[in-house]
Amino acid sequence: MGRAWLRTILADPDVELAGVVDLDRDVAAAAVAEAGVPGVPLGRDAVDLARATGADAVVNVTVPRAHHPVTTAALFAGLPVLGEKPVAEDVAQALSLAAAAQVTGRLFVVSQSRRYNAHLFAFKEQARVLGQPGVLTTEFFKAPHFGGFREEMDHPLLLDMAIHPFDTARFLLDAEPVSVYCEEFNPPGSWYAGDAAASAVFEMTGGVRYAYTGSWCAPGLETSWNGSWRLSASGGSALWDGEGPPVLEAADGVVAAAGEDPGREIAGSLRAFARALRTGEVPMGEVHENVMSLVMVEAAVTSATTGARVRVDDVLERAHERALAQERREDVRAVLGSWTSVRDALAARVPAGSARPAA
After folding, report:
1. What is the sign, positive or negative, of the torsion defined by CA atoms of 74, 78, 79, 84?
2. I need a labelling partner for 301 at 20 to 30 A (CA). Which of 14, 36, 183, 238 fits?
3. Is 142 helix (H, G, I), strand (E, B) or coil?
4. 357 or 108: which leads in pLDDT
């Protein structure tokens, strides 16, 4: 992903690559040479290199366990951050980062890159014209042989992949999770150590249900990487295969607008982030808005582990308690402690002015 972001930054005329950081400078040097920009400054610490080069922001493409320390350091150095998903390794760390963004007044955006898809935006417009949603479903069936950590980890489908459709469901429905019941299992012939298949039903705000069924051990007739979607609403239904244009059948013959083109995947994320730094506009994926997608993952894993229906507010409360206990910065702990309702604190977002970069 670091190399993908490097190519994307170099291809965007509105941003300039100031430097590349890696704990192994040889890896960084190889990456910039491969990208055709061998003279780009290199470093082992993002804040140090940003100060040395005069960079305006940091793109954090580290592994999930490094998201919290790297993003925290950048925010408190006055640097806005665009980070890879997930926002952090767990919800407690995600809450800490939301509070850190409030303390510093700096923008932290999570690149939930699969939102940046013109067909998805058209599907959202169809959802809008169809009226009150009743059921949204996703089917996801792929058979990738990754090798490495994914094939050894616990909950590989839920932890590594399900955040994409869960986040998409929130985007499509303009709704937040209330509860979930989830079952995990490992299909016959699985090459994963952990459970590589899952089914989950979420109750969302407004009473709508979101049902997800997926497997990473499903060779043949595979879905797209975005999955296959169906929305049933009061005024009709819509289908999206995850690749082409969505299809609408409305009871009253209504036709949906085409929807906007947000750009494609990480290029769209980068474009929106750069625009936010210029205008102060708060983009999709701002940390407060994004945390609930990770909450859906953590709630689904908890349900699959315990065999019980899980209330999302219980997950938020436990994560809040852990965040307060683990937080080392007094200013961040004070903000966390001021949240009488975590859900309300996340829904409040941040003022648009907080998106402006450091001078």
Report:
1. positive
2. 238
3. coil
4. 108
